[in-house]
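JOB MANIFEST
job_type = single_chain_structure
chain_count = 1
residues = 306
[input]
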Amino acid sequence: MTAIISTKDYMHQAALLDSSAFRVKRVDSSTMKVLARSESSRLEAIVTVVGVLKSFYLPPVKKNSITSARVPYTRAYSEIVGYDSKHFAAAMENIKDLAYSLASKFPSDTVQHWVPVPGTAEFGPATGDSCRYFTLGTDIAPETKISFEKYVDPSGMLSHHLGNKVAHCIDDDVAYLCVKNDQYVKKDPAGFRVGDIVEMGFALVAFRQASRNEDDKQICKLVLRTLTFLDDLFVKAVFKACHINEAKATSVASRPTQVRSLVKKRFDFHELSSDDEDYPETRRRMAAMRVGDNRIDMETSSSHST
């Protein structure tokens, strides 16, 4: 597998964000984005958060699940939760601040603010991001059009809807990844499971939405850009804690609702048995929120700062 992105490039950990390192810039007549000051003037910043995958709607899409009427609304979506991770909570606060800086560029009565996914007592804070599959219009720039990856559209269900006024563009693309030797490489999105520890990357975007009955609104949102599988220790720990054998685990893992129920009702992330070597590793990864040596171990950094 070919590495496509180094962990040192383009990614900005949400929990460690310095708002002064970012700026808001108009990239076309209807769109503004949050950019990193140190990078290309038109390169969007990708902000990342690590958490447990709670729900998703990812490719490949089911046969005949997209009608022509649904093309404008069809999106890839994922939601992650942080339980009681302080790192995740700090990330969410920084994302709110960055989203506010984007919204503040518009008059208050013309902007629709980004609203985070409501947290719950069971899962703690959460964030969910989506990305459309298609761009619609009569003036789509040819240089922005790209093909669907084979693992995203193996049966051509999405490509079937492409035409003169419907395209798949760079801004519609999500990179599905895993980590090999501290580098991101491509992953089949069909392999993600509820309970996986993942890193979700997104861009902060504001776009104009026309309205027939009232003034145009500026919509601020997080747009899914990357979803990276880190490990499945969390899922394995759930199965072990619930006494599910390996054969049955395969069956249960294919049914997200059941896995989600197990994670919610029968598994306490911070009460894993200390005599199992996998459990402390799972806790450490969630506490550290890191990928390889390029992520920050919060416990280590805290001890060095005192």
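[summary]
The chain has a mean pLDDT of 76.
DSSP finds six helices and 14 strands in the chain.
exit_status = 0
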